[in-house]
Amino acid sequence: MNNVIIRDFDIPANDFTMAGEASSNVRKILTQLGVSPPIVKRASIAMYEAEINAVIHGNGGKAHVEIDSSKVTIRISDEGPGIADLELAMQEGYSTAPDNIREMGFGAGMGLPNIKKHSDIMEVDTAVGKGTVVLITVYLSERT
Amino acid sequence: MEQAYFHSVTLDKQKCKGCTNCIKHCPTEAIRVRSGKAVIIKERCIDCGECIRVCPYHAKKAVTDPFDMIQSYEYRIALPAPSLYSQFGPSYSRERILQGLLSLGFHDVFEVARAAEIVTKATEKYLTKPDIKKPVISSACPAVVRLIQVRFPNLIGNLVRIESPMEVAATLSKKEAAKRGIPLEKIGVFFISPCAAKVTSVKAPYENKKSNVDGVLSMKDIYIPLMEQMKKQKGEVAAPVILSGPIGVSWAGSGGESSALDNGRRIAVHGIANINTILEQTVQESFKDIDFIEALACPEGCLGGPLTMENPFIAKTNLRHEVEMAEKQAGDTQTEDSSQFVWKSDVEYRPVMKLDDDILKAFEKMQMIDEITDGLPGLDCGACGAPSCRALAEDIVRGIAKETDCIFKLREKVSDIAKELNMFEG
Predict the structure, then answer these.
(1) Contacts of A69 in chain B (CB under 8 A)
(2) Cα Rg for chain B, rounded, in angstroms?
(3) Which residues is A9 bridged to in the sheet?
């Protein structure tokens, strides 16, 4: 059976509040599906962090979520400046966020590393001047 | 074992008009209107009392123990919640209130405020532990703990694993009385409560242990008799028992518990909708630098409890006065070993929102819900008896509602039938 649940969200620029709404929406769906709480948590944190990145760095963008019976994939895309040095951006503590963003408690350089930590697979497709796509996969059952 | 869904919050069917006020405000979508009357889904209700507050017909009520119940014990101890002090104006001092309780037929009083000070000390110690999950969330409000059990399983580990001031007060007051030679079985301990959630936490404790509280009395039931006793008092009234310090008294209102803590960044949240929002943000780790969240389900904290008499804003001013008075008194200085009040068992996740035990079936149901929701008007009018169009779609898939419960769907159907009939006639 080909069961896929799809959700799309807009991520506005300069507004963190809608990012929270989108990931909490996905969290509710996963909870209703009976996915275990630690996995729900990982998916929701990974999605939230990626959305926040799109808000801060990418002038907003889109979130496309697909859930099937074995995994959730979250595609966060923006048409922002892109990441010049991906390897550096993956390092904990590295951030290009401006001071005003840091003052709000964001931009600690934990975004991408945190997404990686909470997802089973993370793929980043980025091009300077074109934008960034972060693809997050979280498996819905604990693999042994 | 937890008793199977005891709830203090109940419905008075005769008064219920079947309106949509309660279904719209319930934080766990636990109420539906069926055949013109509200029905509470027991598995979901967290006894927050929000429906009691919003019902314009007073059809929702909190079941508490009758005052006469105290007569079934030979030695009766009153445990006044600190919010009781806020119910009376400045001429009714804490001393008068406590003395008044004794005149009502209690042999002893133990302020829950005193226990709150012990819990404060224990929480401070708890916050210094290196292995705790932050932000730490207060477990003092039972409605919040139950909300977390139902909707935020990932935050169960953030709860302060210390018993509530009410439980601590019950344990200590019994111990003190027993020390004076009173046999335990003759002692009855009664909490004077501002809310329904506390009743439930005594009758069906979530920590899966028996409560030391023997009965819960409503602040509303005790208000007038207590006032009458206080009016009979003459001259200066002395405190009949050891008094709590200002910290314990301040616990009654929002900000009391959190501002009493020594260090760290603390926030105080009140009102169940606000708490929902804060917990949503906490679960996705939006807060990086908050150490402690005080969360009280009622507006202005326990001062806004559904069983209080006074307007919460007046109560706030009354409480401030009592706190100032307490600052001038020498408070209780006893030190209790707080390790005895650490939770011994865990609070469990209650997956009541789950659509099906089988994930594949849950998937099918979710897709059906999506499909049905798309066909509904999206007005969330509540006329079908569910709080939103999506909730109706869920109910349809769960088999407890039908599409024509939606008046718009019904209208469509009626007009379809009318068209068909016209066709035949024409």
Answers:
(1) 359-360, 363
(2) 24
(3) A63
Residue B60: inside a domain: no
Are B383 and B331 found together in one domain? Answer: no
Q: Which domain holds residue B419?
A: 355-426
Residues B161 and B272 in one domain: yes
The pLDDT score that the predictor gives to residue B422 is 86
Residues of chain A positioned with their CB less than 8 A from the CB of B355:
32-34
**Could you report the predicted ipTM of this complex, rounded to two decimals?**
0.83
Residue B97 CA from chain centroid, whole number: 24
Would the CB atoms of A37 and B153 count as touching at under 8 Å? Answer: yes
Q: Which two tokens stand for residue B240?
A: 């009949």
Which residue of A3, A29, A44 is in closest CB contact with B364?
A: A3
Q: Do A34 and B357 touch (CB under 8 A)?
A: yes
Q: What is the pLDDT of residues B250-266, one digit of tens each?
A: 999 999 999 988 878 99
Confidence of residue A100 (pLDDT cuts 50, 70, 90): confident
Domain CATH code at residue A94: 3.30.565.10
Number of Cβ within 10 Å of residue A124's Cβ equals 18
pLDDT exceeds 90 at position A108: no
Given a cut of 70, whether residue A26 has pLDDT beyond it is yes
Measure in Å the smallest separation between the Cα of A127 and chain B Cα atoms: 28
Q: Which residues of B touch A20 (CB under 8 A)?
A: 280-281, 284, 286
- The answer to whether B244 and B329 are in contact (CB under 8 A) is no
pTM greater than 0.80? yes
Q: Out of A5-19, B78-92, B180-194, B390-404, which region has the weakest mean confidence (pLDDT)? A: A5-19
Side-chain-side CA neighbours of residue B17 (13 Å): 7
